[in-house]
Structure formats: C-alpha cells, structure tokens
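Section 5: illustrative case.
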C-alpha cells in the first residue's frame, strides 16, 4: 500500500501537540448544557475531617460557587453527585475493596460516605438535582443519563473533585454515551497537584473541551437566549 510515511519524531510531535494544545471543536451552547458538580461533599471538602480531604477542592469552592451561580442565572440545570450509603453499599464494584484508595488500616468514621452531605457553601437549591452514585463515574448505575436526556441536554460541564478519578471518569463515560463534555480546568482538583495537568492533557486529547471557568461562562453567556 502506498501513502505517506510518518517518522517517529513526527508522530510524537503530533501527539504532544494534541495533549497540550488540542481543542475539541464543538460549540458550548447554554440551552444544551448542564453543570455537573462532582462530589463536593464534606468528606472531600471539609478541612481535616477525613483522610479523603482534598485541600485544593476546598480552595476552589469560591470559584465553583461562581460557576454554579452563573449557570443558575442562565437557567442551566445544576446537577450534584455524591458518594453515600446506597443499597447498603452492595451496589459497589466488587473488586473495589481491593484497591488502596479504600485507606485500609486507617481508623474509619461511621459518618463518612453515608448521607452524602454537600459542603454547605455549595448547598443545592430546590430546583437542583442530587445524584447518589456508587462508584467513580457519575453515569455508572445512576439515572444521570436519563435525567439529561429528559432535560434535552447534550452537553455536560464538569466541575468538582477528584480530577483524575470521579471527574475524569465521568468525562470518559459521558463521551462514550455521546455527550459533549466540557471540563473545567480550574474548577476541578486532585489530591496530588502533580496529576492535575496530566489528566487535563489526556482529556484534552481524547474526551473533552478543556477550559477555565471564566472561559466556560463566556461561551455560555455568548450563546444564551436574550
């Protein structure tokens, strides 16, 4: 078969360009969008309360709150997700208990991951939706996809924590279900800051349009109906 030959250096350059500068081409339309606020609950946000605390998530609360308020102003649905005690914890992936993220050996507080209490500074309004999920991705064994389809929303904007677990998994699951995924670069947080940009690069190349909160709001405001 004929055709152009690509050198190793060239394909590496193309890959690096896609990881660092690639941008998905779909538009961000307010009337098509829903905001997901992933797992901004006490276990991850309340300072020092649990070994799962993500300090950067706490620092991002004001920026996430501004994004939520902007979406509400534009009549964009806000959907929260939380880990909580669902089905007596029997709906979890069975292999999950073998993973080191379970913090085995650390004294456990029976209050952790039971109610799924959202951090008080980001408290849902009456019209917001709270989805209780059993694993990382917000689409796994939850009604999220049905909710979005019924709302006729084909674009999900992702904020919250952790970037490289629940947020990133939700982005991948949304992509695989045909949703347009917008990922907030400065409204998502990890427990190891070194991994933030690495995850954003993967998402940028293959799964999402990665933008800052201010860029997201600019796009939404520019497409909002008068």
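Designed sequence:
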């Amino acid at each position: 078969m004929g055709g152009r030959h690509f050198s190793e250096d060239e394909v590496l350059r193309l890959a690096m360009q896609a990881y660092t500068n690639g941008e998905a081409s779909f538009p961000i339309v307010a009337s098509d969008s829903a905001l997901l606020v992933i797992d901004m609950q006490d276990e991850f946000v309340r300072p020092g309360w649990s070994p799962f605390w993500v300090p950067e998530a706490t620092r991002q609360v004001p920026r996430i709150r501004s994004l939520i308020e902007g979406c509400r102003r534009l009549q964009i649905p806000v959907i929260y997700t939380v880990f909580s005690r669902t089905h007596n914890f029997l709906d979890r992936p069975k292999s999950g208990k073998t993973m080191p993220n379970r913090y085995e050996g650390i004294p456990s507080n029976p209050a952790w991951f039971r109610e799924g209490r959202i951090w008080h500074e980001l408290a849902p309004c009456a019209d917001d939706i709270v989805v209780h999920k059993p694993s990382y991705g917000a689409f796994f064994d939850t009604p999220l996809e049905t909710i979005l389809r019924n709302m006729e929303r084909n674009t999900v904007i992702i904020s919250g924590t952790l970037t490289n677990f629940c947020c990133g998994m939700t982005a991948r699951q949304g992509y695989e279900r045909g949703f347009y995924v917008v990922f907030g670069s400065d409204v998502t947080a990890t427990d190891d800051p070194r991994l933030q940009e690495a995850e954003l690069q993967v998402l940028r190349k293959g799964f999402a349009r990665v933008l800052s909160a201010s860029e997201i709001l600019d796009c939404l405001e520019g497409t909002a109906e008068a």
